[in-house]
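WARN retry 2 of 3 for item q-0093 after timeout on previous attempt; input resubmitted unchanged.
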Amino acid sequence: MTDAVANSQSKRVRPVDDWWKSAVVYQVYPRSFADSNGDGIGDLRGVIDHLDHLEYLGIDVVWLSPIYASPGDDNGYDISDYRAIDPIFGTLADFDQLVVELHRRGMKLVMDLVVNHTSDEHPWFIDSASGSLSAKRDWYWWRPPRPGFVGGTPGAEPTNWESFFSGPTWEFDAASGEYYLHLFSRKQPDLNWENPEVRSAVYSMMRWWLDRGVDGFRMDVINLISKNPALEDGIVPPGSRLGDGFPHYSYGPRIHEFLREMHSEVFEGRVGQFVTVGEMPGVTIEQARLFTDPARRELNMVFQFEHVGLDHDASKWNHRPIDPLELKHSFRRWQDGLADVGWNSLYWNNHDQPRVVSRFGDDGEYRAESAQLLAAVLHLQRGTPYIFQGEELGMTNVPFTDISEIRDIESLNHFAEAIEQRGASPETVLPSIRRIGRDNARTPMQWTDEQNGGFTRGTPWIGANPNHLTINAASQYGDALSVFEFYRALIGLRHSEPVVANGDFTMLAAEHPTLFAFQRRDQSATLTVIANFSSRALAVASVADIGALELPRARLVLANYPAGSRPLNDPLRPWEVRVLLGNPAAPV
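OK item q-0093 returned
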């Protein structure tokens, strides 16, 4: 299946500058990763106990989803104390030990930074909500009712914006007669970054975590921290009751100023090697070039959403079949757009996305093969790849049968709104949640074929996928045909071959409907990737761009099927991928 990449961990390419370009990041969603005390919720001790899994896989960076003190309205993305660990996850001593253990293994730790909003139970908001004379009143967005309306009545909200989690973005406070803004849950009020005291408090908190040994931050919806202060109504899409406020509350006039200030106040002059990645729904290539241009000193990478929106129609809940050609075009735009300035983050999965093998692959007959292909075509592009827990096992979506099995606030709100306001039936709403809902990513990590997948000896906070009996880590260790061992080899290739991190990118057969092929080239080598993005065999030799390739010194270094004698000419089997490494002078 692979070339001699098994030993590549001992010869990793580790450039001091921009070290994250040759790194692989692994996202841990602690609540669902490993439970050490039997309470049914994953915790920091559980993460520590499974670091050998990550080390064996070859991971460089662990991105830890929120572990801060939180009421849990949005599973930790509603923070009530930025400098405390939620007791369900452990203690600060547990966190400090995790940092030590990661660094001892040569891995770094990235924390999730959620500073567009806090919990409504955060002391800042409690103070702010205490009255209009509060010194922290202006730390959040408070506004009076719409002129001519009585506060608390329909239509009195200051703007007509719809929340990401359904319903209006404004919550009425009867005590003060004003509304506060919450782009997400009503328990997640938005911070007012126009107030310099807010920014100063955030920067102080970030420095506090860096002092504890954190190596960087993944910044949740950081594109929303600058809003147009005018707070104007949005256009109401057809069939909607509320308006689209995104043009008014995202990428506001001070977004670049705020990020440059953050860099200056938090990272400038600090000894160490740090990384920052900003989650930015709706970001364009032109914007991403600005955010990630090293000369501007804002961010190292951004998470863009273009490729994970290609199967959305009017909304994420309305499905349109994925077109592999459209997916190729999207990746090509981003590869070309950030070729000379900036850097791409490469991901399929995270805590907000369904499992990619069910979404874009074939989670039935060709589950392993399609999971391996999806890994290769992503990781071997130019950028830093991210793995979400369980992705390295080929974990699939979950066959939810009833809304009682769902825990995600976004899905629950969508279900309630569809039933109560649009008159839909549960039978028509549940399939969309089963297909695209966030809980697909949040079921327990499948460690073994034991009860609950070995995640907990108690009752899990959300049920395990029944297929843990056959899809689990224990069954894949050492199995050369497994998804896990394919990921190990793939990561090893990145660590051993500089062309994976440094090479340029050229798409091949760009208009072919199912062939996903490209080359990476630098002074050291040429890497060629040929992949069949379908469940049908493909006669690759007849494709002009591939048939014309001349790679006499190329050798097959990675594949998900037994190798044939002519890797550039033999037909590609369903979901087959081949990776060849050859002479740097080989022509395209």
